[in-house]
Amino acid sequence: MTELSQPADRRASIGTAEPRHDGPAKVTGSAPYAFEHPAADPAYGHLVTSAVARGRITALHTDAARALPGVLAVLSHLAAPALADTSDAEFAVLQSDEVAFRGQIVALVVAEDAETAREAARLVGVEYEESTARTVLDPESDALYCPESVNGGHRSDTRDAAVEGLLSAADHLLDATYRTPMQHQAAMEPHTTTALWQENRGHPSLTLYDSTQNPHGVRRTLATVLGLPADAIRCVAHYVGGGFGSKGLPHANVVAAALAARAVPGRTVRLPLTRQQTFTLGGHRTPTVQRVRLGADEGGRIRAISHEAWEHTSRIKEFAEQTAAISRMMYTAEHRTTAHRLLPLDVPVPTWMRAPGEAPGSYALEVAVDELAELVGVDPIELRVRNEPPHDPETGKPWSSRRLVDCLREGAEWFGWDPHHAPRLRREGRWRVGHGVAAATYPGLYIPGTKAEIERLGDGRYAVRTGAVDLGTGAWTVLAQIAADALDCPLDRIALELGDTRLPRASVAGGSTGTACWGSAIVGAARAFRAEHGSDPRTGARTLAGPEEHPEREQYAIHSFGAHFVEVRIDADTGEVRVPRMRSVFSAGRIINPVTARSQFVGAMIMGVSAALHEENAVGHGGALATHDLAGYHVASHADVGDLRARWLEETDPAYTPIGARGIGEIGIVGAAAAVANATYDATGLRIRQLPLTPDHFLP
Amino acid sequence: MDRDIELRVDREAHAVRVDTRTTLLDLLRDRLGNMSPKKGCDHGQCGACTVLVDGRRTLSCLLLAAQASDCEVTTAAGLAPGGEPHPVQQAFLDHDGYQCGYCTPGQICSGVGVLDEAARDEPSHVTEDLTARVALDREELKERMSGNLCRCGAHPGIIDALEEAARQ
């Protein structure tokens, strides 16, 4: 299939700086999020969560809660309907007396108003028989295991027998261990479901307004868990207040909302998680311990790479962050070993967080490369240039495009990079000043299965329908732009409908795939529509189709690249690290909308700097999180955000999709923390091999 | 325990009986159906619920509804009567000062409050000269807006927008 052509006779929509179509609704607050869908006389749910990390519920006292005026239902494992499928333990809500982590749902109250629900939840008494919990990641533990695969379907380990010999014989050997902490997505909208259960002549149906990145995925999961046909469930997500992976897969709260609604059929129930509950039930990124070994020859060419990662998962459900996978493709080396080991713990279920794998993995790898550059005695940009792989080292496939060196060179000029390979320990007044560089990458993933429908409306516009969802990425705008060019019509002729399982099936808003996968389906549907109905279709003409075949995709290794340049200033007396300036250049294929793209790139860079400087959580020995609110889990605030800017290379990647755009939602966070860390080394000569880079590391 | 209160929300008068535990935020959202202020934390840590109470920016999750009796409450919805955006809202649109939009109504109400505080020469932590007129440069704006968290990383666009609004 050929690339999406630019209409010759009028200005294309793709590539124009179109303001967000959902802007007016968002600046007034009228865009309805999951809690906010209108309902007549809704009831309110509130969760009771476990106070121990591991054990059994021995007694549950609900009389006081039930006696409270306004309480409609109190559910627990003693009084909840049996679920049809409990094979996924995360979704087995209120099905047994077992407690697998602190913060697990152990009871649920539905009441006439939110105040009563919360008070009743407080009155539920739970007694436990507590068992010894294991909650701390210990890379020496004998309970570590090798998962069958890691997130994304990657192999857990790649082994090469030659690696150890090459490492021990290398002219320059870097062998270092890096640590990243437990992190949280902390989307501003807490996970929330507004649910309505209805019975119609013995046929139940369930409507969910959910804060999800994947309405069709929620429907699929809930159908299985509840034993309902998929078409008995409708999931709507017109607006979602951020997700960053935490809303990519359904979590226990959605099942709880369905149970709550089932307890009061015909009555809408709103079940928002409290902010505290989002820290346990909404997901987190595992802490990691990573050992990276790079063996290079005299000229700095890497001959062997070993990247091993230790991380935790929950005892009840495996999630294996693909932390070391980045080292399979990033730099040249004839021989490489990568490995992942998981320790199952009595902790909440980890899940996707922006750039799972690449974000923590790039931190370790890109600091290691900086360390190797010093050993070799060359500038870290030059070291990367010397280790550019001509094709993907993992698959042997040619790159569809690999412009890391272009990103590094353009970024160096833009930032004003002075080549160096040892810390310069500069000081300006009270500030220690340093510069750092790191590379970024993210794969061009492709999720099949999205379909789109085009219909000619009576007013001359085209309805474009797909079940995709906009978390703030700009999908409401960029999908309209793609549709306008695919139908060869002005943008104001597009009436886009998103975020509803009544619309054609769409893949998850995750893995930086949305624009490519949904957009390809829209292009496919538009071409099928024109083939079927011509350029002057009758009102009501309609076509449902998916993407056209695109076999080129399989022939190439498809990845985006980028380069971050960071200036840090460290207070010489307090150790406080500031990032006053950051310049990042990306190669991400065609940019559909420079306004929303810039915000995606810069937003992810800010999240990366926030991870570098602030973000850290830990599970204590009793299973309690060290912090579970936005006061303790500090994310970058306005005063933390310096002058951060992004640019991109003008290009297109037709090997990936006919649109030529690779994803942009995640690459901005990849490598950002490493660039900050490398800059702190330039400023202080202290090589801190763990995140976050808090002041205590730099105290005089 | 209930209490009868009267208040105005976005120029509309309301007389309501409220549970004394009810926050102003829950009164607005659950009782009056005004979903413009958002609940991000319910603990005064994120700023998403910011509204103007008698013109001053206020965390509506930390104010009991009963305390707002006889007050004039303005939400981001009320800043745009008839759908005509307030200059601060227009500046957010022009500078893409939002992504997911969940913190946005709070950022906007907070920004309107900041402009008013500066016009009254109320200093902030980073104001160097406490005797001079307050000038809202980027450092001032960032300091004053730091109670409003944003996780999408729209901070540069938000400060660009407020810089422009401050110039007008």
Brief overview, please?
The complex is a heterodimer of chains A (700) and B (168). Chain A has 700 residues and is α+β, with helices and mostly antiparallel strands. Helices cover 24% and strands 24% of the residues of chain A.
Keywords summarizing the entry:
heterodimer; A: 700 residues; alpha+beta; Aldehyde Oxidoreductase, domain 4; 7-stranded mixed sheet; 5-stranded mixed sheet; 15 helices; 25 strands; 24% strand; globular; B: 168 residues; Ubiquitin-like (UB roll); DNA polymerase, domain 1; 2 domains; 16% strand
Question: What does this molecule look like?
Answer:
- Chain B: Keywords: 2Fe-2S, Iron, Iron-sulfur, Metal-binding, Oxidoreductase.
- Chain B: It holds the Pfam family Fer2_2.
- Chain B: This is 2Fe-2S iron-sulfur cluster binding domain-containing protein.
- Chain B: Pathway: Alkaloid degradation; nicotine degradation.
- Chain B: Residues 3-79 form the 2Fe-2S ferredoxin-type domain.
- The complex is a heterodimer of chains A (700) and B (168).
- Chain A has 700 residues and is of the alpha+beta class.
- Chain A has a domain at 23-31 and 449-546: 2-Layer Sandwich (Aldehyde Oxidoreductase, domain 4), CATH 3.30.365.10.
- Chain A has helices at 23-28, 63-67, 114-123, 163-169, 215-226, 252-263, 275-281, 358-376, 380-386, 404-415, 475-487, 514-533, 552-555, 594-613, 672-684; strands at 43-49, 55-61, 71-76, 98-99, 105-111, 125-130, 149-150, 154-155, 172-180, 192-200, 203-210, 233-236, 269-272, 288-296, 302-314, 335-345, 426-428, 431-443, 452-456, 462-465, 494-497, 542-545, 559-571, 577-587, 643-648.
- In chain A, the strands form six sheets. Chain A has a seven-stranded mixed sheet. A five-stranded mixed sheet of chain A has the order 17-18-23-24-25, with helices on both faces. A four-stranded mixed sheet of chain A has the order 9-14-15-16, with helices on both faces.
- In chain A, helix 11 (475-487) packs parallel to helix 12.
- With 168 residues, chain B is of the alpha+beta class.
- Chain B has two domains: 2-79, Roll (Ubiquitin-like (UB roll)), CATH 3.10.20.30; 81-167, Orthogonal Bundle (DNA polymerase, domain 1), CATH 1.10.150.
- Chain B contains five helices and five strands; from the N terminus they run E-E-H-E-E-E-H-H-H-H.
- Chain B has helices spanning 24-31, 87-94, 104-119, 138-145, 155-167, and strands spanning 2-9, 12-19, 50-53, 56-59, 72-74.
- A five-stranded mixed sheet of chain B has the order 2-1-5-3-4, with helices on both faces.
- In chain B, strand 3 (50-53) and strand 4 form a beta hairpin.
- Chain B is globular and about 45 Å long.
- The interface between A and B is large, with 63 and 58 residues.
